[in-house]
Specification:
alpha+beta, Aminopeptidase, 7-stranded mixed beta sheet, 5 helices, 7 strands
Length: 183
């Protein structure tokens, strides 16, 4: 039996966070329209340079909440969220390395985070029709209807659009204040 633990990340986790982000996004982006033109490589290269600098700063300044999952002391995945001024959270990233898929790592990360966040709303977004959308919906996220249908946040994110990828977004919210009925 493998030992799975979820803990707060430390600055020493920055390289692993970046690696999981890049591996997870590459896998997801390879399924998008436009991927066949080399757009995935362009976006991943851009992300690698940005997040290699950003993650150590975010981990050090405390502006972002990071939880990491470890299986037998090996990094397996992470979840990143930002507290909002009203006490709610914006979930920015949730990635599990492929070799740990199917081992409940992502589930433990999400459950740990939702318990940590408490009875607040949690906002996120993902690509419409993606595996990620299914996973968010499993945990009680639903389309955030307060975001107008023509809002910029529903369009393909600019770095992806510049690389030729097509990935319309769906804003999501988990209304924890109204219900704590999550799996």
């Amino acid at each position: 039996m493998c030992a799975l633990e979820v803990v707060r990340a430390s600055p020493a986790d920055a390289d692993n966070l970046c690696r999981a982000l890049l591996v997870g996004n590459r896998k997801a982006f390879e399924r998008l329209p436009g991927a066949e033109t080399g757009g995935v490589d362009r976006v991943i290269t851009d992300m690698e340079s940005r997040f290699a600098d950003e993650y150590p700063k975010r981990l050090s300044d405390g502006s972002t909440v990071f939880f990491v999952a470890r299986v037998d002391d090996n990094f397996a995945g992470y979840l990143e969220a930002v507290p909002l001024p009203n006490g709610d959270y914006r979930l920015r990233a949730w990635h599990v390395l492929p070799e740990y898929h199917g081992r409940k790592v992502g589930s433990r990360l999400m459950r740990h985070f939702l318990e940590f966040a408490g009875e607040v709303d949690v906002y996120s977004h993902t690509t419409i029709g993606s595996e990620s959308e299914d996973k968010y919906r499993y945990y009680g996220f639903e389309e955030d209807l307060s975001v107008p249908p023509d809002h910029d946040s529903r369009e393909t994110p600019p770095p992806m659009a510049r690389a030729g990828l097509i990935a319309p977004q769906i804003p999501l919210v988990c209304r924890r204040r109204c219900s704590s009925a999550w799996p």
